[in-house]
Design a protein that fits this description.
The protein is mostly helical. The protein has helices at residues 3-17, 34-62, 67-75, 80-93, 111-133, 136-139, 142-163, 185-197, 201-214, 216-247, 253-292. The protein is elongated and about 70 Å long.
């Protein structure tokens, strides 16, 4: 909706919700989905990390297979990502609008899916060229590239939210229509992943919007998460890309091999640590939100 309409509507909604006994609830508790989340993370780690290292090094160092054949073998497990993409696409394009962004058309994708899809050609290019040329440098780049891409998006979105909070968004961000006030980019990522991948659907998109409008603490949490994950992803991805570049020089084979392993394992290790730390921090902040509700100020943004 236009900025002026959104602002007045948000103010009315906030004032209404400040009279409740607690912040508007989110119909998705991580504790209820712990097993599913652990399984999902394990699958990603195995097919997009461990397979690329635990299979590559023994074949490369202990067999006479050409590096082109080895890369062809280790690229096979990554095809699960295309299956996941297909499942997500199918949910978004169903006749029912259960999984699509709020107030959007039949063929509307959410912002996460657009970013997800736009990265595929680059990842495919790295694997295809790397396998065809037997180039370890190219096959090292998929995860560092994704980290840098997502991290940059988070930083740009955070800058817009923090430094230009009244500038209307130029286009739709999932359920947030063009012309709205910007929100922390982590808000959009959480909304899209839980609604589609987690099966929360339209109910979750509505609930997180209500929580965001009513709770300054929730807005502040999302804002700080956006900066932290954006900076972390950009720095880690950029560092790995530089390392790969240095290792690609003549006479740097050992560094090339080390950089390859780091590129496929370090992002997952950092992600695991970051996720655990984020969950603990968010839980503590949300407990504070519950305890101080509704004494926090309605108009506070960050």
């Amino acid at each position: 909706m236009p900025l002026s309409t959104q602002t007045s509507t948000s103010r009315l909604f906030q004032e209404k919700n400040m009279t409740t006994t607690g912040p508007p609830p989110l119909p998705y508790d991580l504790r209820d989905h712990k097993r599913t989340l652990i399984i999902a993370f394990t699958i990603m780690l195995v097919f997009d990390g461990l397979m690329q290292t635990l299979v590559f090094y023994p074949l490369y160092l202990k067999t006479t297979l050409s590096i082109k054949i080895i890369f062809a073998i280790i690229c096979i497990p990554t095809t699960w990502s295309f299956l996941d993409w297909g499942k997500r696409t199918w949910r978004l394009l169903q006749k029912s609008d259960e999984y699509r962004p709020l107030n959007s058309g039949r063929w509307t994708w959410d912002f996460y899916h657009i970013s997800y899809t736009s990265a595929f050609p680059f990842i495919t290019l790295f694997f295809a060229l790397g396998s065809a040329l037997g180039n370890i440098t190219l096959v090292s780049l998929p995860l560092p590239f994704l980290l840098t891409l997502v991290g940059t998006q988070l930083l740009l979105g955070s800058a817009s939210y923090t430094f230009a909070p009244n500038r209307p968004t130029p286009f739709r961000f999932s359920s947030l229509p063009a012309g709205s006030r910007p929100r922390p980019p982590v808000y959009t990522i959480v909304e899209d992943i839980v609604a589609v991948n987690g099966g929360g659907g339209k109910a979750y998109r509505v609930a997180i919007d209500r929580r965001y409008e009513a709770s300054p603490v929730f807005r502040r949490v999302l804002g700080r998460m956006s900066w932290a994950w954006g900076a972390g992803g950009t720095v880690l991805g950029g560092t790995l890309i530089v390392l790969v570049g240095v290792g690609s020089r003549e006479g740097m084979e050992t560094l090339r091999l080390v950089a390859y392993g780091l590129c496929w394992l370090l992002p997952w290790a950092c992600t695991a640590v970051g996720v655990v730390a984020t969950i603990k921090w968010v839980q503590r902040r949300l407990r504070e939100e519950e305890e101080t509700w509704p004494s926090v100020g309605v108009g506070e943004r960050v």
